[in-house]
Amino acid sequence: MVSNDRFLAVPIWPFSPQLLLIFFLSPIAFIFVNHLLMYSIGTLGLYKIKKEFEIEFVSFLLLFFIFFMNGHLIGKMTAYGPGRLGYYLIPWLILFLFRICIYERKNKDSLFDRDALLLGCVLGMIFWQGSMHVFTAFTTFFVYWGFFNLDKLRRLICILGVALTLNSMRIL
After folding, report:
1. Residue 100 contacts residue 155 (beta carbons within 8 Å)
2. Residue ranges in the chain modelled with pLDDT below 50
């Protein structure tokens, strides 16, 4: 049982800026608007991937349907509810990870690579959505990724440092 003074510290409850909408909307309307907002963010992320890597429309449509119409999302969303809304931020993780892996940056030695900072912010926002399991899975993935890409270890430290700093008040 969670005591009332630590309600927002429970990692499955969202703690993101759109939580302020709850003051203006009924709970059912908030759930609908929140899902619509997160769905739009996920669609925008897929569209950004399409533009970045010049994916044709048919391939983009296949990617869109695979991402949004799979049974995992529907099955988990009905069982766990808002604790899975971080799923919609995965296209942004993939985009920034591909940018780090594919593109060579001018400042290779810089710890504060823009894409690494953005990737850490997106990873932190996943935890803000209450998606502790998605956050843990991707954090584990990035640790393994860093183990096999030792030349990008500085970026991994930046990614995990930003994500953990953004969520330090909930983690502590």
Report:
1. yes
2. 1-2
